[in-house]
Amino acid sequence: MKKIITVLLTVVLAASMLAGCGKEEKSKADNSLKDVQEKKELVLGLDASFPPMGFTDKKQNIIGFDIDLAKEVAKRMDIELKLQPINWGSKDQELDTGNIDCIWNGLTYSEDRAKTMLCSESYMDNHQVLVLPADSKIKSLADIKKQSVGVQNGSTASDAIDETDELKDADIRLMADNVQILNDLGKGLQAAVMDEVVAKYYTSKDKGKYKVLDVSLATEKYVIGFRKDDKALCEEVEKQLKAMAKDGTLEKISKKWFNEDITTIK
Predict the structure, then answer these.
(1) Burial level of 246, CB count in 10 A (0-12/13-18/19+)?
(2) Phi, psi of 66 (to 5 degrees)
């Protein structure tokens, strides 16, 4: 009899513990949007050397296409936008430790990134392209043998290089940002791989200095990165972007930076 009672007590205790665990799990609410609303601030992490998405101008102001989008979203959420420059190679740690609320700066979607962060709906398409000095003799990827090729450390441009057979023997040099890469192009670097939007911006800005090879190493989509569990905040930002697309604000901002609407969110 005592044995039966002991077994019953054990079963009841185990069930009680499981129920308690369930309540604890359920109590872990997603407060990401609430937290941002209460502090009245959205902290945006970015590489401040990534024109035209987000970069520092001559007056040391951070400007760019993504910055204009984020400012409008924050305005509609009735909160302030804080721009926090980060080391792009450490972006996951910056997000996970809570130093920033999101990464919004030409962030390309990838399956690996989706494992470590919550990615928003894509708002723009992008390509990885090869940038050359204007007087370069390189006509195709096949012309690159062991030449030096610059790429930003921690970027999907680096992933694109890894998956391009023609660049397997190239001298790949990992660098801090695209501004440094372009400054060194033709002065130690013979080629560079970077986002098409950046390449087009610089070829237009510095006419006759660079050229872009007419080939895409990879087709990508730009997203906004949040912490894995911050679904409420992600959904609110997406909601505001869709409203901006509907009322024409998204198109207006895109034409300011690209002379056309290249956004994809609906």
Answers:
(1) exposed
(2) -65, -35
Tens digit of each residue's pLDDT (9 = 90 or more) over 47-67: 998 889 999 999 999 999 999
Distance in angstroms (rounded) separating the CA atoms of residues 263 and 122? 9
pLDDT in tens, 134-165: 999 999 999 998 999 999 998 889 989 999 99
Distance CA 16, CA 77 (A): 42
Residue 78 falls in which region: left (phi positive, over 0), alpha (psi -120 to 50) or beta: left
- Alpha carbons 234 and 119: distance in angstroms, whole number: 8
The helix/strand/coil state of 54 is: strand
What is the predicted pLDDT for the residue at 13?
Answer: 43
Determine the Cα–Cα distance for residues 52 and 54; give it in Å rounded to an integer: 6
Q: pTM for the full model?
A: 0.76
Low-confidence ranges of the chain (pLDDT < 70): 1-28
Nearby residues of 126 by Cβ (< 8 Å), 6 or more positions away = 106, 108, 195, 196, 197, 219, 220, 221, 222
pLDDT of residue 118: 98
Long-range pairs, 21-28, Cβ under 8 A, ≥24:
none
> What are the E-state strand segments in 51-209?
54-56, 62-63, 80-85, 102-108, 118-119, 124-133, 148-152, 171-175, 191-195
